[in-house]
Amino acid sequence: MSGGDISVLLSHHLKALKLPVFLREHQKVAGQCAKEKSDMARFLLQLSELELIEREKKGAERRVREAGFPVIKTLDSFDFTAIPSLNKRLVLELARCEYIQKRENLLAVGNSGTGKTHLAIALGLAACQESRRVRFFTAAGLVTALTEARDDKALLRFKKVLARKDLIIVDEFGYVPFSKTGAELLFEFFAERYERGSVIVTTNLPFDQWTEVLGSERLTGALLDRLTHRVQILEMNGESYRFRESVRRLGKKTALSEPRKEEKQQKPEEET
Q1: What is the pTM of this model?
Q2: Which of 218, 236, 217, 226 is nearest to 197 (CA)?
Q3: Is the same domain home to 7 and 105?
Q4: Do 130 and 229 belong to one domain?
Q5: In terms of domains, do 101 and 166 share one?
Q6: Is residue 79 classed exposed, middle or buried when 0-12, 13-18 and 19+ CB atoms within 10 A define those classes?
Q7: Are 162 and 168 within 8 A, CB to CB?
């Protein structure tokens, strides 16, 4: 068999085995190994490492797409100094995702605009990078999805999809009150996740006001009992990020407009 025939067959086999990095890099790595006088085991090790890195990268990218994050946020861009009540060391530990392995929950509680959604997405992104399957919903969006699945007689199938996720993020709980049916569907979701999979919930409401959203003290008590049994609570009270950013931008605009006002005042003097 000629060298050309071997090359064609090798390309065919690598494509069939779905080893694109082997196919793309084997000649380059072979040349490097020849220069370094490395043995065959070293050659295969380098190729397999490159293939594994590529697969992990693509797998993480796929998990991020499937998570449905509204935007991408990371812990590197989170301003911990703005929220003194937040335990930074705990957050960094949570990014290692051991709480997901233990099927624990996270609750980010604080007033509006303090970065709860940013933090939830950043922890969800960290989970994707740790090979965890994640799904992001707003609380209202999750209730809508559950309601539509029930109306389409596909609720059981949708619940099975959710059950396969290692982490589900329920953002903005407390912004919109739910109907009786919506509250019951949401309770069923949390009850079925209990000790089977982790959730992150962000809320601007203290627990004693959750009845305003769910409409039933009995339902609220039962939900909180399950949600807070194995939970880490992140307290995030502080000045609103959005308000502070608006003030900063307004200050910049004011500073930029001041010289123009001075110029207008000086113009008549120059003409005289």
Answers
A1: 0.79
A2: 226
A3: no
A4: yes
A5: yes
A6: exposed
A7: yes
